[in-house]
Design a protein that fits this description.
Length: about 290
């Protein structure tokens, strides 16, 4: 579980990002009023002009469990509530229940977003997220072609981050979820964790962080600002200093892929492939 130092640093990052987002939106609004012909937030292949102020509210609401979970996370309470795991049957059942609840929460968040956009806002989700921008064959081909260099880049960044933090940061061990997967003696728990990592998390995180947050931020700022903000928040809510730079790098790549292809299906598939490769590496004993 994250230590107090990790939580403190990540809280500061999130607070600064949220402040920068508020100030940035205000500044960009002033620039647009001064230069009404400037429309850089409409450039690229990601559609952002359909979003409005009410979408800012819903994006904050949907992301609030992640952000508030970090801002009000208590390492002491987490330690006291999570100390009874082990490899016992009861521990395995508790672990399976926890993973299952995370899956339900993730898919529930994705469903809530889609219902809001389709039923309340009346938007065509297929057009908004570019679902029909590419044939499925091209989506798969692009994702398969991009995943190898993406994986290599993230691994190199991860090695650099570990080397940089070693001897400086108190704990550079893998994320808690990685440890849980490696040490779990339950096939059911590993299967649930695999489904969460390869299906539920990529679908939900891409819809929330790339689809909604990036699109809304781009609407009120520009693509560069939105990419950095959404990627910093994505990396922060994973609650792990050692993984911060690799996750930030991965998020930037997924944003770039989204802009290049115009289809959110590509980063969703790439995210699932990336997590799947990580699981295979763990099963093979790679550290």
């Amino acid at each position: 579980m994250p230590d107090a130092a990790t939580i403190g640093v990540l809280r500061d990052v999130v607070i600064l990002v949220l402040l920068a987002l508020g100030i940035g939106a205000f500044v960009y609004r002033g620039i647009r009023r001064a230069f009404p012909l400037v429309n850089w937030n409409y450039e690229g292949n990601v559609l952002s002009r359909l979003y409005g102020p009410h979408d800012v509210v819903i994006s904050m609401l949907l992301l609030s469990p992640y952000i508030l979970g970090l801002l009000f996370y208590s390492p002491a309470e987490a330690a006291s509530t999570g100390s009874g795991g082990g490899h016992s049957a009861a521990g395995g059942e508790a672990q399976a229940g926890a993973v299952l609840s995370q899956i339900v929460f993730a898919l529930g968040s994705a469903t809530a977003l889609l219902v809001w956009l389709r039923r309340v806002r009346g938007l065509d989700v297929g057009d908004l997220f570019g679902i029909r921008a590419l044939p499925i064959g091209k989506v798969i081909a692009f994702a398969l072609g991009a995943i190898a260099p993406t994986f290599l880049i993230v691994v190199v960044v991860n090695l650099g981050a570990v080397e940089l933090l070693s001897g400086v940061w108190p704990d550079v061990s893998p994320q808690q979820v990685v440890k849980a997967f490696e040490t779990s003696g339950s096939v059911a728990v590993r299967l649930l964790m695999g489904f969460a990592a390869v299906v539920a998390a990529p679908l939900t995180e891409e819809l929330l962080f790339r689809g909604l947050l990036y699109g809304v931020c781009k609407r009120f700022t520009d693509s560069w600002f939105a990419a950095i903000v959404s990627s910093l928040l994505f990396a922060s809510v994973h609650l792990h200093i050692g993984s911060f730079m690799p996750l930030f790098t991965l998020a930037l790549i997924l944003v770039a892929v989204y802009e290049i292809t115009g289809s959110l299906l590509v980063p969703i598939l790439m995210h699932g492939l990336f997590n799947g490769l990580m699981l295979i590496a763990m099963l093979l004993g790679a550290k």
